[in-house]
Amino acid sequence: MVQKVIQYGNSLAVILSRKSAASVGIEAGTLVETTVQGGRIVVQPVEVVPKLSPENQQFVDRLYQKRRRVFDALGE
Fold it and tell me: Which domains does the chain carry?
């Protein structure tokens, strides 16, 4: 499919067909990564794993230690 590159603010954009996007798991709101490989622009979806702030991680760690037996029982 041939498509025209359009101006989008100070950037450039290409519209993806719904069928092409869906075939690789891209839908509205999907975060994508763009890279240049061998003279081609590659667009692929990325999975974002939320990262806790140090304070929240400490809270989770304390909660886990306090309720370890409960979490272990749930895991069985």
Answer: 6-45 (2.10.260)
